[in-house]
Amino acid sequence: MALDKNGIAKRIAKEVEDGYYVNLGIGIPTLVANYVREDIEVEFQSENGVLGMGPFPFEGDEDADIINAGKQTITTLPGASFFDSATSFSMIRGKHVDLTILGAMEVAENGDIANWKIPGRMVKGMGGAMDLVASAENIIVAMMHTNKRGESKLLKRCSLPLTGVGCVKRVVTNLAVLEITNDGFKLLERAPGVSVEDIKTATEGKLIIEGEVPEMG
Which CATH number goes with the domain that contains 89? Predict the structure, then answer.
């Protein structure tokens, strides 16, 4: 059974380690804060100027002035701080973020990512995506494996305008966990009930399969 968006976030939360500073992109990545282990200390950063984000608020507890980069209301943890965009991007460009989790529309087998623009559609701008992919050394992408037409989003080459080149390290989709290698997408884990053949069919880029592929824990 393929994962839903929360399932993807739960799996990515396992990649978050004690003491990490983590930037969460718009979309599925914002859900990761809900699933991080309670026995570790993690600082979530949002490029609109927040350090110390917590889980999403319960209904009725929202504060419209406390939002993430996607303009969603958030909670903050004790000791959280607020600052301007210049300070926020100094953190990002200065490589002070240990893990960046982004959404994507396409990822190529060499680690290229397209996540900011579909030609012909109105967009407000690239936002912080280009700074994040240019500066981060540990990028995990959270995304659906295929689009609404059933076409693969894990490609030989991205067809959409690129956000970054050769920067993605790992991809977690509703079907699988894949590592970007010099030879293509290496299949590490599959979603419960999803076969290796299902993942092959849904992946346009080169897929590397070595031995028995375990289900996600």
Answer: 3.40.1080.10
Catalytic residue among 15, 47, 106, 204: 47
CB 104 within 8 A of CB 141: yes
What's the whole-number mean pLDDT along residues 202-209?
98
Does 47 qualify as catalytic in the annotation?
Answer: yes
Radius of gyration of the chain (CA): 17
Is residue 213 a part of any domain in this protein?
no
Q: Residue 96: left (phi > 0), alpha (psi -120 to 50), or beta?
A: alpha
59 is in which domain, residue-wise?
5-208
Give the β-pairing of 154-155 and 184-190.
unpaired
pLDDT for the residue numbered 124 = 63
What's the number of domains the chain is made of? 1
85 within some domain: yes
Q: How many percent of the chain have pLDDT more than 70?
A: 96
pTM for this predicted structure: 0.93
217 within domain boundaries = no
